[in-house]
Amino acid sequence: MIRAAALVLALAGPAAAQNVVPCDWQASAQALAEPWEENSKTFANGKVRVAFLDTFEPAIGFAWFLVLSPPFEDTGDRQCRVVGASEDIGFAGLFFDTLTSSYHPLTGLTLQVDVRFYDAATDGLVRRPLVVTLNQSTGEMTASYAKDGE
Predict the structure, then answer these.
(1) What distances in angstroms separate CA 118 from CA 33, 44, 84, one per listed residue?
(2) Could you give the strand order of the β-sheet that contains 19-22, starting from the edge strand earlier in sequence?
């Protein structure tokens, strides 16, 4: 009951909200979408790995975008982040086959992948490109939906 209430509150926010959070329960190896070779990809000479995570529940927020990237910890581990529609809710779909990348020295690595999310304003699902920008030097990562026409 509490989880259902949290879901309603999380989805009631604006359609422009997306969150980059440290890996937690969403990043379980069990959530790696099958087949792995079609739902995981590396960039930056293998230093950055992204993957589609499927947590199965909640049905309207099961899909997460995983990013393993520099900077590296003292132990050699990369930082681990997941991107979802909110801090606790993923997307209603993630279309990994649409994943593209670009790099610019001033902004870093930019990844774009189509996602589907619930839009409270229309009470429906919307498909839009998710844009994730990563500065590998600092580890700063931002996520936003592409505006129409981008």
Answers:
(1) 21, 32, 12
(2) 19-22, 78-84, 63-72, 48-54, 40-43
